[in-house]
Amino acid sequence: MRHHLIACAVAALAVVGVPDVLDAADPVITRVFGPETPTGPYKHPACLTELSNGDLYLVYYGGQGEYARDTTVFGARLAKGTTAWSSPQPIAHDPFRSVGNGVIWQAPDEVVWLFYVVRFGDTWGTSRIQAKVSKDQARTWSDAFPVALEAGMMVRNRPIVLHDGSYLLPVYFEDGADPELVGPKSTSRFMRFDPQAQIWTTLGDVASAKGNIQPAVVELAPDHLVAYARRGGNYAPTTTGWLVRSESRDGGKTWSAGTDSPFPNPNSAVDFLKLRSGALVLVYNDHMWKRTPLMLAMSTDADRSYPHRRALATGDNSYAYPIAFQAADGRIHLVYTSDSRKVINHAVVDEAWIRDAPPAQ
135: pLDDT confidence band, cut at 50, 70 and 90? Predict the structure, then answer.
């Protein structure tokens, strides 16, 4: 199934900022940063959040390449009511190790969390998860502190707030030393934070035949969670590349075996969110070995079917690592990278645009 990117979105690629008014039929895609931004050519992946003061805050890790030693997590701000992003500033760096995969999220108590990865060796299988917090709208940051110390632990998606007020952080364990292969022992995992006790607890993991990583999760009902995860394996052409799906009925303590979903996956990241309307939106690459097109699929029956589908970005490119959230005004914001991981794009989409998708061609 393929849809064409609407002309207005293509035209908007050169625009910077967010419009004041958005027509439900017209997503707007803007190019935020590219190779010209002096933080190194590599800008991948990126993560975006809306702060309680109305600002948008973007993080990404930059440097000379994915496995470069000297990398930094940068932060940039689009202040409410403005149209220009601030210059990226370093917010997490290690003088001896590479850092990566910054995740930015503001909790209900207005504490802003920055999760990121520190790589101790040559491959991601040597990584650990660290974090910083900010109590002034991401203007200043605490010292770094560990979240997961086991070798191979990484983070990629934003937390969600569960029905009891605790935070559920999707994490993952990546096994192996081959940079071109996600090993079969790789698993999606979850950590819970109790904001009253200020304690992190490790929950269950998702195992699957080929391995899986980078889960995205929603809570359908109290303690009933559904996660979609990136498949394991390599990057070669295949006819068996599918997103991995799993469920938990006990708040994430245990998970069903990961099974192939109906959605293709080219060994690439995915996002999954629950809108305030109750609808679910899955953001994924609709191909088994190429990271194009970037698709949005909506379910209005609690993950049983996804009849509403729209292609947000198409063409010969690599649209990777989408992160999505619903802003205070109800619009859906997405950030993803393209152009060989050198360009960060920001899209703003109205829920009705997905819901009103034409019948499948």
Answer: very high
